[in-house]
Amino acid sequence: MKVDLIPGFYRNFMAKPDETLYDHTMSLLECLDEFKIHLTDDEFELLRYCCIYHDIGKMNSFFQERVSSDIKLKFDPTKEIGHNILSFLFVFNNTKDIQINQNYLNLLFNIILNHHYYVNNIFELDRKGDLAIINYKSIFGNQECVLPQKDEKRKLKRLLEKPTIRQAVLKGFFHKCDFAASSHSKAEIENDGLIKRLDSKGYEWNDMQKFARDNFNNSIIIVGSTGMGKTEASLLWQGEGKAFYVLPVRTAINAMYKRIIEDFYANGYTKQVGLLHSDTKNIYLKDESLKDESLENVDSFWEYYELTRNRALPLTICTPDQIFRFVFKYPGYEADLATFSYSRMIIDEIQAYSPELLAVLIYGLQLINKAGGKFAITTATFPPIIREWLDYEKDENGNRIENKINLAEQQFLKKQVRHKVRLIDDYINAEEIVDFYNKNIDLRSLKILVVVNTVASAQNLYLHISKQIGKENVKLLHSKFTVEDRKKIEYEIIEDGKYENNKHIIWIATQVVEASLDLDFDFLFTEFADLSSLFQRMGRCNRKGLKCICVPNIYVYEKIDRGLLRRDRVGYGTKKRGFIYYSLYELGKVALHKWKLQTSSSEMSEEDKICMINEFYNREKICEIEKNSSYSSYIKDYYDRYDRLTEISGMDIQDSEMKDSFRTIVSINAVPYDVYMEKFDFISSIENKILAKRAEIRESNDKAAREKLKTDVLKLKDEIINFTLSVEPSKADLNQYILDKWEKVYITMDSYIYNSEIGLHKLDN
């Protein structure tokens, strides 16, 4: 690594209270060396100059006074200007000393100017040009300072708002260096022999898994029956590379994280496998290997968390809202795009997402592909409409054009028939389930899974069924249990759902059981929603295909509450409601009845499922049934979101829009009202302890001690988090919260109550 260009006087100035400008610059250059393999020689030189000069503006007296003061001094916008602007002015006025490919000169300016984005830096130059010159000359004496002219600022604005993919990636690599150096953490952790770990298990890989392994250098689509080992296939495809494993719900994510670290990482997983969703800190906090109260282990906890947050680990298991935010081009998004340019993105069960979220995922995958990254889609079913969307994008003029992504695609289906299906033209009801249970009580194993479309339906079924056959034989799972209760319930359903566990039990659940949970029940009773959801639910019954299907083991109730069907805006002030698309629901019913007419045995093969998806979930069929429909359009909702994403420019997006786009998987944390009232004194005492710890953090100058105190705060917060659950904002009082404005925990409306048996429910339930 060359250091000859670093000014010697950097040693005389501070970049941070405990770090000189020279040391900080060296840290960036060390990080940059890690990324050299992903850069051309010209690109590396560009970024080297960015690292060397990005903070030269920190030499101004205002910054040096703040960074060395014992008291907290605030930035004074009437007297000073951001150090990034001063750094930009230095390179802009000293281009003769910068030996890079001239094609990269404007990009150099852009990266240095916009490596911080507290304000619109180009606008700030226009508004405070005279102040910028005064600040500049205070550093560099009487050296001439020329401000960029109109045409030069136009080029900078274009680079900020509409960079090419590669320009954004290069800016992202710089951000990664700066973030890693600032947090004193590794920019990347090397993959520690994942393939060797997989091979050491002694498995005989099936054709699907071999296909994934053989296509390491390609993006892939795998359509495979449930229970065929798509997880192992995904890991084999990752190989010795870096990957992000994206799952739709936290239940599945936590289960996958636990499975991977237990099955393939007996030790050392904290440097290899990360978990990334809104509760990451709390999950890590409960990690037995990090429970030691010593400062050494506290350091390990924070290091693990920072490595996860900075996307530095070889494998990260995560939710889409944590990873695909980059498509909104928020300030600093380039760091994620740079990471994904050399990474592998694994999307599990992509058909499970709403069309709005599909637009986010597909646009993101298209950007990743253009940046140089790879992706794998692993799914039990892959509707043709989604396949079509993947190959279409918008050109600069806003026209939809075909741009096929080069990938390997193959289908792998189990030959044995696992399901015999009975269609019931009625609403699901407790009496028929109870009757079935009582008639089959002599079976060695009678594990019944009941899946319905709403929490309220699950609660009502539970109350009716448990009243008739006893609470000891009926259990309930949905999203409206507190963290503490849900953890226990999820453990129980996974245990009950193991193939080898023979029991007499009825589990009633919502769609939280659909994705990536390894469950193997004997019978399934389910409400219909659409084919993709149905087949996911069926995958939780006779998963291994080893159980007898002499009689139907799947019972599908076709009728549902019409209020669940997603409606478009029908008048002023009214909003979309429902979450099941009419077109998918109706086409699914048509498909099932056509299948029923063509079979005499009621056996549904894996090929049958794929054929139904392919025949009915395509553009032509969906458009036909949506024609003149009053219900919301599945296709229109996709394109509304996709088109908006393609129009977004840098510095254009609002956080509210980002959160709205993930509304189907993101909710707010809240304590049930009655729990809050019952635990009021305890919660208040925890809040006071947190305030006291934070005061100690502010007063301490010892980094290790501060980290320990921060961990203590997390542990205290966790005592409150245990009482929380996820709810829609409409069910909470948004004017009342605990903890602080940065990490709000709300209180649910007093019209909702909670108990550990049925979860959160309305008073009149």
What is the top-level CATH class of the largest domain? Alpha Beta
What share of the residues lie within helices? Answer: 40-55%
Report the span from N to C terminus. 68 Å
Which structural class fits the helix and strand makeup? alpha/beta
Largest sheet: 7 strands, parallel
Q: Spans with pLDDT under 50 lasting ≥5 residues?
A: 570-574
Cα-atom radius of gyration: 28 Å
CATH superfamily of the largest domain: P-loop containing nucleotide triphosphate hydrolases
Number of domains: 4
Strand content: 5-15%
Helical segment tally?
31
Might you state the CATH topology name of the largest domain? Rossmann fold
Number-wise, the strands total 24
CATH architecture of the largest domain: 3-Layer(aba) Sandwich
Mean pLDDT: 90
Shape: globular
Strand order of the largest sheet: 5-6-4-7-8-3-11
